[in-house]
Amino acid sequence: MRSLGKIFLYLLLVLLGGALAAPQAWHLIQAMPSEWLGGLVGKVQGMPFHRYLSRSLQVAAILLLWPLLHSLRIRSLRELGLRPSPSPGTDLILGLMLGAGGAVFLEACLIGGGFFGWSGGWSGGVVPRILLTAVVVASLEEFLFRGVVLGFCRQSLAPYPSLVLSSLFFAAVHFFNLPRSAEDGGPHWWGGLSYLSGCGSAFPSVVMVLWAFATLFLAGLLLGWLTIRTGALWMAIALHASWILCQQMFNAAFSFRGGNPCAFLPWTGVPQCHGAVPVGVIPLISLVLAWVAAAMLLRRRPRVSSLPHAGSV
Predict the structure, then answer these.
(1) What is the structure's pLDDT at 310?
(2) Angle between helices 88-112 and 281-297 (to 10 degrees)
(3) Per-residue confidence band for 198, with pLDDT thresholds at 50, 70 and 90
(4) Which residues contact 206 (CB under 8 A, 6 or more apart)?
(5) How confident is the model at residue 200 (pLDDT cuts 50, 70, 90)?
(6) Which of 78, 90, 126, 269 has its CB surrounded by the most CB atoms within 10 Å?
(7) How far is it, in rounded angstroms, from Cα 237 to Cα 259?
């Protein structure tokens, strides 16, 4: 019970620290010459404030992870069920292949079925930003959810209950959506807190929430299974990053053709969580196919020894 309280306190401090740091980061960036770093600073200056808040929350989550692990008396990654991978390069390649393969199937169905069409707004300039976002977000989320949360659950639960519990948490957290605009902007010190207070202002319909939750839950199960099966995070990080990269590039080039977000359900609908989560039966099928492919690729790999109180998966 004390450990759960420490994790709750960690989440609270991440929200508070990120919210208070975001306005300061905004002021700092705005004070820099826009031509620095080949004009990159100027592009960052033009980003909306919710992007500053999102990145500040990610940085706060990283900085506060070590105190959390120390307070939980976790001295090494082995205590979380993680082992050094004998072939991290191979795991990365396999993860990228699984993610790209699933994305090709998904997007071919969405385009071929007439659910999405070319928007004409594609620009190659978005690729570096999307690539950086994919790597950073996938690395952070996999370490937090599959490393810390799943590993912590496995210390007292068997693998399957741990997978389910950590995946439920992973799915639920994604509905903590930052609004894209707010009355109080970056110049005010309370701007970040104001944004957080409006997180539920644009909550989607119950139907869309259930479909998005199903996608996130199944994705969490697959990523968690890969982590337990390989004993490392490399394949899960690569798969997650590939999903983000392909989905965001798809969003930049194609748009939903249905006037109603639920028009094509149960097959598909408007991607949720700021376009990061595809919904419907087709995305779920692509996840199942990726899981089957992963199981086939790993069928001859020796299983990693489990944590105490846990069996094999």
Answers:
(1) 47
(2) 150
(3) low
(4) none
(5) low
(6) 269
(7) 35
Across-strand partners of 255?
117
Q: Is the pLDDT of residue 224 over 90?
A: yes
- DSSP annotation string for 147-160: IIIHHHHHTTS-HH
Q: Are 139 and 237 in contact (CB under 8 A)?
A: yes
In this predicted model, which residue has the larger pLDDT, 309 or 85? Answer: 85
Burial 157-174 (b: 16+ CB within 10 A, else e): bbbeebbbbbbeebbeeb
**Residues near 248 by Cβ (< 8 Å), separated by ≥ 6?**
126, 130, 133, 134, 275, 276
Q: What is the pLDDT of residues 237-275, one digit of tens each?
A: 999 999 999 999 999 899 999 888 888 999 999 998 878
Contact status, residue 194 vs residue 26, Cβ threshold 8 Å: no
Both tokens assigned to 116: 């999405």
Looking at the predicted structure, is the pLDDT value of residue 179 above 80?
no
What does each C-alpha distance from 279 to 174, 204, 219, 225 come to in angstroms? 14, 12, 12, 21
Structure-block tokens of residue 292: 């089957």
